[in-house]
Amino acid sequence: MSTFVQLKRHMRDDQRRQQLLDIEAGLREHPFPPQVVIETTSYCNLKCIHCSHREMMRPQQHMDRALYDKIVEEIGREAPDTEIWPTFYGESFILGQELWDRLDYAASVGCRNLVLNSNGTLLHRDDNIEKILRSPLRRFILSLDGLTKETFEHIRAKAKWEEVYPNVERLLERRKELGLTYPTITAQFSVMKENAHEANDYRRYWEERGAEVKIRPMLEWTATGTVRSDTIDHNADFRIACPWGNNSMAIHQDGNVVACAVDYEGMFVAGNAKLMTVKELWGILGEKLRKPHREHRWRDMPNICKGCGDWQVAGADYAEEQVEGTRPFWYYEQHDAAE
To answer: What pTM value is reported for the model?
Structure first.
């Protein structure tokens, strides 16, 4: 059984500590961010119990289209294989047709690795299932986090099992009917005390229906809000450089480049993408965040990093890869290092 499913405290598990050390050993400096999270919208239609979006204080808005275009044009020109996540904090389908226009534009300027995540609640609207399958997406990830109606609706507050599950199944059926390679469809499950008992059944359920399954431990969203995990220890005498801080750039809808993809309130700001290039901002993050982490200069890290324990939940359990080359970049680096 997975370490994640057992809900052990990560720092009390010697095997898990070694996994984290192995992940850290594989970290390296990238000349351009291998993963860019672009917050195309900060709106969300759910109030999930394990997500700090429900208590976020900054404005909920869509990113200006001109700013989005500027960002993806640079990525397409400089590093077309960079993973682009066009939103993370919000629900992307709230953008309506604009979402698909933005994805198409990113592909048209050379971006080859588009990854979209969703809570699945709007799949049934506006022909979204067909739009997903006709889009340039490489991966489509659905965060569901519960198998039974009771567990799913408790965790994914305001979502309805009867609306989400049948439509995810229809998406998978339609993908099979069309014989598509891309996008791959991933059913994600964040393990917490409320759902750990369903993890193995969840994996079987979605694998039988043709989805990839990703099982990951629950985040605390930097522990700056009220979300907490029983598996994260904030008093441990052990720490590694944060993989997310090392490997990703997160850009809020107003253009602010923040510490990482879970700095939901933007407590650390390196600069603004309206005024600077992605590459310039990546350099600032390198000096102010990545180097202190990798050099274990914990006192020199941004303040948001000092109290954050989310580095303890790095990594995820995946089943066998369905389509070669469609895992996140770190998955391959980690496995290459292990070999």
So the answer is: 0.94
